[in-house]
Prior knowledge:
Oligomer: single chain
Largest sheet: 5 strands, antiparallel
Mean pLDDT: 95
Amino acid sequence: MTSLHNKKPEALELLRTRRSVLARNLTNPGPDKDTLRDIFEIALRVPDHRKLEPWRLILITGENRQKLGEKLAAIRAANGETEPALLDMERQRFTRAPIVVALVFSPRDDGKTPEIEQLLSTGAIGQNLQLAVAAHGFGSQWVTDWCAYDDHVKQELGLKPHEHIAGFIHIGTPRQPPRERPRPALKDKLSIY
Length: 193
């Protein structure tokens, strides 16, 4: 029988060192089809009170990244924002990394499970996905920005009226190792009751 208390140095090191990589610093190759499947299967292993599965993933690859960027530019232009550099940035938003995953929060009203628990489960999907990406040797960045909250973007991606985009997770190969950033001191964040 295997003990759950045996340390797994590789897993612990991954948890200690996982770091977001800016989407603009991600390039090809991205994970292949089998690796992506493994990443998604790992991502779905989260706490989920009453097994409501209040989340889903939308994979955005290939030319669809550019198509979605064109939609963003059209939305900004329709809102009177016509600066060429801004519109070009929107066109390229989803082409910076080879793979983008939209994480969708899809709460279910079962009359028992608070929505906050469902939202936390969705957040756990995002973190598991990023850990699985790192474990496979790739980099990722979880981004929201205005487009995660825009009704036109939600419609373009086929979201239902009660659904929300929890973020876009950009995935690819880091151009360079990510730099560490300052982390909070445990003494400032931990209290004892």
